[in-house]
């Protein structure tokens, strides 16, 4: 408390502070020293009245330093009110300042000093026939009003500051959420790029390998393989360019949405695999509801794409069966291919199936994969039409 009592307040004043202090000085001067001069009555000026007016004026002038030393000044002015009624308005203003800026214990200490001054007031200024308890009562009432008003103003200011801080914190948290959403979208785009390029590059590798090992192939087959290579390379570059353009955008919300593949595009994916030399038996017995999210079709497309890419890597040229059926309020995807000791030389990151399992889990579905007892590798996934159906 001693440290708080002796620590000075800032002395710099804003324009608003100067206006408030000037208006306050004029009010306390008009309420205290000016009436005490007797200018508005017939009472003559006496030495006692002169001392009262002088102390009142000094108290009003001292209020200009109430922001710098509020507690010390309030105590001094409270002591002055004990011998100078003209100092009462200035003492009340100083006590109000303490309640607003220091609150709590400091306000209580200043209030006690002000209440003790009721004793000299009663002894020096009580009129004949006036009840002895009137001056203490008025002093107590005035002190309670000033302190209560100051504490209310302090509480209101703290509430406004708290609301402003909460608003700033909410804005900051919203910005963080937006940034996290952007990062998540960029991560999703990067995964899409991996799935797409893995499929396209596997086609390039397969046909380039065929040209390398069959240089004596008929010109028609070589031209066909070269056409597939050119088409796949063009599509891979185009998709890579689109993805990188989105990733370089400063604000993903302003970037146009790229067309995303869905269930209806799986047929083109199968046709591309067949063209690359992988016999695919494709069966589709499912139609999505009209209000289904596009994410379901996109996830199904990526799962089939990764499954066909893996089949082409690890069992090149072997038959693959793909079926899409409706089950349990969703779509079931099943891909089977023969196990083969032969494998293409296409390198892989080894995380394709892990990524598929994560994709299915985030969509509320399931994914299973592994070898069967019939010499096949089976991948089965189920995706709900709606996430709440999980």
From TrEMBL:
Sample GO molecular function, one term: kinase activity
Domain of life: Bacteria
Pfam family, one: HisKA_3
Positions of transmembrane segments: 18-36, 48-65, 105-126, 132-153
Domain annotation Signal transduction histidine kinase subgroup 3 dimerisation and phosphoacceptor: ranges: 185-252
UniProt KW keywords: ATP-binding, Kinase, Membrane, Nucleotide-binding, Phosphoprotein, Transferase, Transmembrane, Transmembrane helix, Two-component regulatory system
CDD domains recorded: HATPase_UhpB-NarQ-NarX-like (cd16917)
Catalyzed reactions: ATP + protein L-histidine = ADP + protein N-phospho-L-histidine
Enzyme Commission code: 2.7.13.3
Name by which UniProt lists this protein: histidine kinase
Species: Saccharopolyspora taberi
